[in-house]
Amino acid sequence: MKSWEDIVNKALLGSEKASLRVADIPASIAQEYDLVASGNHEEDFLRFTSLVYQFRQGGAHPLDFNAVKSVEAAVETKQYCSTQANDTLKIILDEELPQLLYLWLQTCASRQEVVSPEMIPALLDIALRKKELRKVIVEVTGNRGLWLATINPPWNFSLPAEDAKTVWDTGTPEQRKEVLRELRIANPEEGRNILESTWTTEGANEKVSFLDILKINLSKSDLPWLESLKEKGQKVNNAILELLKLIPESAVVQNYRNILSEAVSIKTGKALLGMINKTMLQVDESVAVPDAVFKTGIEKLSSDKNVTDSKYILAQLISAVPPSFWNQHLSHSTPEIIELVQKEKNTAFYLPAIAMAAIRFKDQEWIKYILDKADRDIIRSSVVSMIGALPAVDRDRYALKFLKDSPHDIIGLMANSDVEWSMELAKAILAQTAHEVYSYNRTFYRPVMALIPVGILDILDSFIPNDENKKVYWKSQSDELARLLTIKLQTLQSFNA
Amino acid sequence: MNFSEEQILAMAPDDSSKKSGKELANPSKWVKREWSDRALWGECQGSGKLPYQTQIDLGNIAFKCSCPSRKFPCKHGLGLLLLYARDKKLFNQAAEPDWVTGWLDKRNEREEKKTEKQEKEKEKKADPVAQAKRQENRMKRVEDGMADLRLWIGDIIRNGLINIPGKDPSYFETMARRMVDAQATGLAAMVRSLRDTSFYQDGWQTPFLDQLIRIYLVLEGFTRFDSLSVELQEELKSLIGFTQNQDELKNETGVRDEWFVLAKRTDKEDNLTTERNWLYGVRSKKYALILQFYVKGQLPAINLLPGSCIDAEVVYYKGVNPQRALIKQQYSVTAKSDIHGFRHWSDALASAADAYAINPWIYTTPVVVENVVPYKVSNQWILKDEQGNGVTISRNFAQLWKLMSVSGGKPVRLFALGREHSFEPMGVWVDNQYILLA
Fold first, then answer.
1. Is the dihedral of CA A175, A180, A183, A184 positive or negative?
2. I need a labelling partner for B154 at 20 to 30 A (CA). Which of A215, A319, B229, B416 fits?
């Protein structure tokens, strides 16, 4: 309404500078009410404006949007999840329980269901912040989510990301690291090539961080480039060496193998007055170690007075070659080799080094044999790392087996698992944590509650600490755990309702 | 009584009590959970040897707990009521123990004494001469206050609005206090709403000028008070700040109807919570605005759940085409009824125009419009009807994406509040389900 705009402009200036005259009022209104100025500018302004105000608000007509063509969302092909499931999702979002959110989303997606439209914007906002949830959120938000993303582009997670090369050339250090990380996961060769393309222009610190990312899917194919690098800086050279030591085919690992081939052998002799054959592992600690080896991170001097320098050097070399080397070199199976190594006190010393090598080269078969066959006292220091290097399916079993030996470390390790604990493991862990109420409090239970099977709810009361002082604390912690597990149970049940 | 979690949590004295109350809404925390027609009580095992005894008067919501907390209500009271609101089946009906009966009896005694006192005060007030004298004094004060307000408005108009956004809040507050002194609290609120204009938003001048004009129309209308209709006189008196006696209103005949609860909006300022409930009469096709005010530690007298239907008698406040009303009697909660709105925005705006013609002080108009499609055009969000006409969605609307998501670009029946070309959606019907947006 133009006359209203004029009035607003005059109002801004004030009636002293710009008075409102009868002529400023639409003629139809002025004539209808026979408007006459009184001479009092303020009074006239208010009087005339109130008249136009009444006409303006009483005469409003809808705006013409016929030219606007809206597009409807496609019909969902999947079923909507139950009202109960939606209600549980609301509780999870209200109580900010990220672990249960992931469970809810996964369950919904696995049942080929979609979330109620009401909840979609909240989930898409979460997907904006949590990249790891995007795929599953896109699945459960269905066609409605895709349609919303066409109106709000930041929610369009399927848009081709900016060209990796462009981000690599122009992005911030963090963005560049992210690009390299993603490429190493999806296409390791491409990742290496992109790093190679700008290698000479990178600073030392960047080179070190990028080499660290190169550990992802590191393989033999990375070897020619890594071995060809000639760097001046010590930090970068150390980082390159670290990578080379992770590739079994590298010259440095090959060199270690050669030394160990000379130093370690199998000796067969007679025992029990020659009645039986005896096989022993023989370690020649006097084997010559070239000086070049000590430039590859192998230390010359032992810091432990009970361990000779030569033993210490050999242990370092053993921990730096893949355990499968021993199968080839000694022509024995893994359990036989473990048996031979721990047979004599002298050779048993090297078993932790073999365990470390199994962890370094992620040799799951060797890890499992060591955990199954080796003397617990000998491998105690590397048990947790070995269990951590196993896939989830095996981790649970070994965690249960070694829980009593290193409870805090194992519980700490399993608290970071991404797979629900078995009932047996959960019972064993709770039996431990219920007695240590000061170390394991709410801040422990809240994040791990998604890992605890809901079956624990039925027996939660059976975990009671013996110490009277601890009982009150445990009661409050178990109440909280029961509440969280009830929400978890609701999540699971709501999809079966 | 049915309470929503939101209502119960609104009583919490602080955020930590809310959090603790939620944690205590857990059956395993309560060794005893019982109820009677009058009360709810439970025993909660705390850190002490004996469990805390928590009790709630259901008739006139009040809490008592044997815990040492100085907060009111304490976390135990909140937790017990939350648990009751979530699942009544967890509570057993039982005879009230002595500690509950004793407390309730004392409360009743106090209540009776209070009523007696009120009756006595009423009798005192009933002196017509004194009442007329008081009324005359008040009118005089109001007139004096209005004269000052007229000068103040005149100054604003003379000097222009350009410098208004830079004014110190005390510029408005001083005049608002003057109005409070003049016993014109309604006008004080109108002045304060000038202060609350969103000066950082483009086009703030229009809402500011609109409000200034509304105040001017009150002042101008009051000069012609005796020549106005009774309805307009009541309307003006309400706008100035004269309250209407609720007991007297309840003696009037109301509108008995099936009322659909369309929206509930709660605002908190300091200790006071203001609850605005929008109702729609299925048969009378009238809207009613039920206001409830309560302070911390209190619950609203009536609990209205958006999306539900109640059979109730509603009495409107006196005025011109009034929207504000009170519930004289609620009979029952009924099955949800289907309601129908205007077919087009043109009908809705024409109806609003009729209302403005007789009452220029209406801030917002409630409307239900059929087959509305929400959509985004450039940076503007619109509500388009089946004729292709529409209005814009008000800028402060926080549930845009929820509205978009539930509609999916398809036409929906929509309840909105607004004026002229700007409306705020409050709820939509999707597949016969009412979804609240407020």
1. negative
2. B229
Query: Partners of B423 in the beta sheet?
Result: B393, B418
- Tell which residue, A238, A12, A228, A444, has the closest CA to residue B161: A12
Burial class (CB in 10 A: 0-12, 13-18, 19+), A409: middle
- Show which of residues 394-453 on chain A sit within 8 Å of chain B, judged by CB atoms: none
Q: Is A8 on the interface with B (CB under 8 A)?
A: yes
Local structure of B150: helix, strand or coil: helix
The model carries a pTM of 0.78
Nearest to A42 among B23, B157, B390 (CB): B157
ipTM: 0.80
A459 touches chain B (CB under 8 A): no
User: What are A94-128's pLDDT values in tens digits?
Assistant: 888 998 999 999 999 999 999 999 999 999 999 99
Strands B30-35 and B92-93: what pairing? parallel
Question: pLDDT for B350-365, tens place per residue?
Answer: 999 999 999 999 989 9
Q: Which of B45, B377, B402 sits opposite A121 (nearest CB)?
A: B402
Query: H-helix or E-strand containing B287?
Result: strand B287-295
Q: Which residue of B has its CA nearest to A124?
A: B401
For B215-282, give the DSSP string: HHHHHHHHHTGGGS-HHHHHHHHHHHTPPPPHHHHHTS--EEEEEEEEEEEEEEETTEEEEEEEEEET
Could you tell me where the DSSP H helices lie in B308-344?
none
Helix (H/G/I), strand (E/B), else coil: B293? strand
What does the alpha-carbon distance between residue B307 and residue B260 come to, in Å, rounded to a whole number? Answer: 7
**Cβ within 8 Å, pair A15-B409:** no
Inform me whether the pLDDT recorded for B213 exceeds 70: yes
A377 band by pLDDT with thresholds 50, 70 and 90: confident
Assess B126–A contact: CB distance below 8 Å, yes or no.
Answer: no
Q: What is residue B74's DSSP assignment?
A: -
Peptide bond into B374 cis (omega under 30): no
